[in-house]
Write a structure and sequence with these properties.
By secondary structure, the protein is of the alpha+beta class. The protein contains three helices and nine strands. 20% of the residues lie in helices and 50% in strands. It is globular and about 40 Å long. The structure holds copper (II) ion.
Length: 135
C-alpha cells in the first residue's frame, strides 16, 4: 500500500498527494499548530514586511524557536500563482512570531506558504497565510 501511494505521489501533482500519504499523523500536527498573520506593512517600494505568529492551538500559546525551513510567496490569491517574490527572514521578532521581508513587486493579494519544524513535534507544520501588499 505504501509503495502504491508513493508511486501515486511520484506521478501526481505534489502537495495534495503527499498530504494524503501522511494524513493520519500530519493531521494531528496540523490541528495542533497554526500560523496566523500578525501584520503586513509596506517596507519601501515593492517590499512588504510580513509577521506571522505560530500558535499551539489547544492552549492558544505562541510557539518560539520553530525552524522555518521553506518559504514561498506568490500571488495565487490574486489569480497569479506563478508570480513569486523573494522571501528574506528578518531578525528581531518577539518569541512566537516570525518576520519576513517579501519582494511584492505588485500590489494585491499574496500568499506566504511556510514549512516549519517545531520542537518536540515530529511532523512538519505547513501553512499558508494570505496578506495584502500595498504599492
Ligand atoms: Cu501579480
Amino acid at each position: 500500500m505504501l509503495s502504491r501511494l508513493l508511486r501515486a505521489a511520484a506521478l501526481g501533482t505534489g502537495a495534495a498527494v503527499s498530504t494524503s500519504l501522511l494524513a493520519p499523523a500530519a493531521f494531528a500536527a496540523a490541528s495542533d499548530y497554526r500560523f496566523e498573520l500578525a501584520s503586513a506593512r509596506p517596507a519601501g517600494p515593492g517590499k512588504t514586511d510580513v509577521t506571522v505568529r505560530l500558535v499551539h492551538a489547544p492552549d492558544n500559546k505562541p510557539v518560539p524557536d520553530a525552524v522555518i525551513f521553506q518559504t514561498r510567496a506568490d500571488m495565487a490569491p490574486a489569480g497569479m500563482p506563478t508570480m513569486t517574490g523573494n522571501v528574506a527572514p528578518q531578525a528581531g521578532q518577539q518569541p512566537g512570531t516570525y518576520r519576513f521581508q517579501i519582494d511584492t513587486g505588485m500590489a494585491g493579494g499574496w500568499a506566504l506558504t511556510l514549512a516549519a519544524k517545531v520542537q518536540g513535534e515530529p511532523e512538519t507544520v505547513r501553512a499558508t497565510v494570505t496578506f495584502n501588499a500595498a504599492q
